[in-house]
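This part of the workshop introduces the protein records we will be handling. Getting from the letters to the C-alpha cells is the skill we practise here. An example says more than a description, so a record of this kind follows:
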Amino acid sequence: MDTRQSATTRVTLPPAHRGVVPVSAKQAGALHRGLRQLDQWQRASARDGAPVPIERECHTQSALMMVEPIAACGGEMSEALAHLLAALGLARLS
C-alpha cells in the first residue's frame, strides 16, 4: 500500500442514532478529501498495472458520490455509509 494513502487522516464520527450519523461540514470535508486521495491512488495504481479490487474501487466511488453533497454544509449520513468509510480506513466510529 502506498504511504500517502495510509497516512490519510481518519475522522472520528459520533455514534449513530436511529440509523443516522451527524456530520459537520469540517468532518465531511475531511472525508471527501480522503476519498479523493484514495480514488486518485487507486487510479494511479491501476494505471501502473497494480491490481485494485473492483469491490473496493466501487465502494470508494459510491462513498465519494454520497459524501460530496454533505461536504458542502454538513448534515447526516447513514450508519451504513459510516461503516463503509470505516472499512475504507477513513473514519473511526466512536
Observations:
- The two ends are 26 Å apart (CA to CA).
- The chain is about 60% helix and 15% strand.
- The longest helix spans residues 25-47.
